[in-house]
Amino acid sequence: MKKDNKNVIYWLLFGGLLIFIMVVVGGITRLTHSGLSISNYKLISGTIPPMNDAEWQEAFELYKQFPEYKKNKHCLYP
After folding, report:
1. What is the DSSP letter of 36?
2. Interval 11-30: pLDDT, tens
3. How far apart are CA 76 and CA 16, in angstroms?
4. Can you tell me the mean pLDDT for 4-8?
5. Most-buried pick from 2, 26, 58, 70 (CB within 10 A)?
């Protein structure tokens, strides 16, 4: 086997290992219900976070409507 082929094989195995780890971590997150809630997911315009206090307050008010907030609100305000 050529050295170039070995490098490609190692690269592919490493990539496969990383994908396997991502699937396992995603499965654990899903099974334990420990993922983050998204109050209002905007695919295109949602890449920029709220830029002022009023926008953050609006986002927080939306988050308060979700079961995760009701379940974990004791963690936010001790």
Report:
1. P
2. 999 999 999 999 999 888 88
3. 38
4. 88
5. 58
For the chain, the domains span: 1-35, 38-78
Q: Helix-strand-coil percent breakdown of the chain, rounded to 5?
A: 70, 0, 30
How many Å separate Cα 18 from the centre of its chain? 16
Averaged pLDDT score across all residues of the chain: 80
Lookup result for tokens 């009023």? 54
Q: Tell me the HSE value of 39 on the side-chain side, using a 13 A CA sphere.
A: 16
3-state secondary structure of 42: coil
Phi, psi of 71 (to 5 degrees): -75, -35
Which of 40, 33, 32 has the alpha carbon at shortest distance from 63? 40
Q: What pTM did the predictor assign?
A: 0.49
- Scan for tokens 């695919």, then name that residue: 43
Q: From 37, 35, 11, select the one nearest 25 (Cα to Cα).
A: 35
